[in-house]
Amino acid sequence: MNPDFKPEITVVIPIYNEQAGLQSLFDRLYPALDKLGTTYEIVFVNDGSRDNSVSFLAEQFRLRPDVTRVVLFNGNYGQHMAILAGFEASRGDIMITLDADLQNPPEEIGNLVAKIREGYDYVGSIRRKRQDSAWRTYASKAMNQVREKITNIKITDQGNMLRAYGRNVIDLVNQCGEVNTFVPALAYRFARKPTEIIVEHEERAAGESKYSLYSLIRLNFDLVTGFSLVPLQFFSMFGILLSLASGLLVFVLLVRRLFLGAEAEGLFTLFAIAFFFMGTILFGIGLLGEYVGRIFQQVRARPRYVVQTILEQKPGQSLDLPAGVEKRTVGRGHD
Ligand code: UDP
Ligand code: MG
Asked: Where, by residue number, does the polypeptide cross the bilayer (predicted)?
């Protein structure tokens, strides 16, 4: 693809160990985009896959070099960093993000694009019926409500990555150097005219979710700490209330001591209260740590991700792959 060529649409797809489903993704994605009858490019960002994904991507690049670009990271930096790298490499006016696992049907891209053409610069999406495990769906709903209350970001369905952004939003996102972030929320911040549409959601086509419970908790902390100070303020408020209440308790105990004499009842109630507060204090310290740790990562100012290579067609260049990018070899096993 000629680097000066500016397509109307850029589709950004993060890839992490998705070899099992990539072929079916290509089989649906390219026809869906071709059908739109406009210019487009697809930017795949390989987030340090340890399986054969890179070979599939390289092969696909060879087949459709006119509309395909592949950004290769040198390691795993997470889905949101991969999307940001895709944004930086993108040239389209309308940016679409999509998961690689076909949970977001590529056929919906046309509807997102139509909304952007109507003049919106952020099109979120709400899954008509979410096809994930029950606990994920439930926990995600609960988190959605917490986020809605403590940040001023209005996203109905935060977990869904099938979204469209206008160029004005992406240019601003590209100026941010945030290390731990949540792309839809960051982009929402910069949107002048956001809207949402309802989309289909499918079960993962192949492979399994790349998010463990631990990484989901981390991601939600990124979202909350990145966009709100309310959790910290909540602890300050709670501390103030607690100091007032314990002052009152001291006063009551003092009065009882003077009028009723020494008492030592209710020992276990005291334990229960003490443990509850110890738990609360530990949680508070942990929460502080989440913010401080992120500040630390940010001030170290290391590169957020390292791009090893970008596979793209340059004018007059043959399509030989750069050294280090393996060709697909039959029978090569998983790592
Ligand atoms: N992904 C990524 N890096 C990671 C984890 C995930 O690029 O460290 C990609 C993954 O390949 C997929 C998308 O992010 O395209 C969403 O991941 P997944 O489908 O596993 O998440 P879920 O649908 O379970 O939330
Ligand atoms: Mg998925």
From this structure: 234-255, 267-288
Containing 25, the helix (H) or strand (E) segment is helix 19-35
Ligand nearest to the CA of 208: 1
For residue 316, pLDDT beyond 70 = no
How far, in whole angstroms, is CA 76 from its chain's centroid? 14
Position in ligand 1 atom list of the atom nearest CA 45: 7
Answer whether CATH 3.90.550.10 is correct for domain 9-208+303-311. Answer: yes
Which ligand lies nearest the alpha carbon of 48?
A: 1
pTM of the shown model:
0.88
Ligand 1 atom closest to Cα of 14? 7
**Overall average pLDDT of the 285-297 stretch:** 94
Q: What value does the mean pLDDT of the chain take?
A: 91
User: Does 15 sit in the ligand 1 pocket, CB within 6 Å?
Assistant: yes
Q: What is the DSSP letter of 322?
A: P
Q: Does residue 157 line the site of ligand 1, with CB under 6 A?
A: no
